[in-house]
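lol ok so funny story. i was supposed to be doing the assay writeup but got distracted and ended up predicting the structure for this chain instead. priorities right. anyway since i did it might as well share w the group, maybe its usefull for someone
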Amino acid sequence: MTSFTLPHELHGDGAHKVFAVHGWFADRTAYAAVLPDLDRAAFTYALVDLRGYGQAKDAVGTYTTAEAALDLVELADRLGWDRFSVVGHSMGGAVAQQLLARAPHRLRRIVGVSPVPASGLALPPEQWQLFADAAHRPENRRAIIDITTGGCRPDAWLDRMVARSLECSDHKAFRAWLDSWAGEDFHDRVEGATVPALAVAGALDPALSADLLRGTWMTWYPRAALHELPCAGHYAMDETPLELIRAVEDFLRADEAGKTDEGERV
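and the output, tada:
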């Protein structure tokens, strides 16, 4: 059986290798707004397209966070990355935690940007229907983006985010991914993991809030930190790119600088 290589693009030539993993609503272009201002001397970033998205839109698979974690390990081997960090947005945050379960010895640090907890995300029936039907209803995607950014973003931005989502994702894969990131609970496999782990929450996001992360991420990981961005919702890469870069890269630099993790930062 031929192995699958995640489509990817590399930015920077720094010694600290970092995967950037997108969420449910975007491919690797989710990170477009932060690209110009990344520290390319300190880090090498690999932006990937998960199966069902972007250049992997037609890739077959199970469309699960566990499969994605194994795909990242495969890509790390191909790139010659023995150890690396992972930044994951939303669903991609669950993928980062799956790596804790499968390859903790390969990880330097993980960052979840509005990360889905390893316990999944329980949705009431009406919310589940909203999310499930988003696979084929653009209006549902728009409503989800609007709700999770505080209902205060311009209409044109919401329309652009929906258009990007529809263009970059396969609708059947999109629907299958929901069952994995929302429905799977693997927190017992990662609880107590000692890899330094930063969660970044947007204060305008009611779904993956700082309070939710205090009860999950901050409880499970002994070397966890929490940073809340006051002007961001669920899509900090687009909403507050400079603030996000500062929070993430300061955290990633900490082991080079010999710093200790300080727990919650809000």
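Confidence is low (pLDDT under 50) at residues 258-266. Strands lie at 8-11, 16-21, 43-48, 84-89, 107-113, 197-202, 224-229.
back to the writeup now i swear
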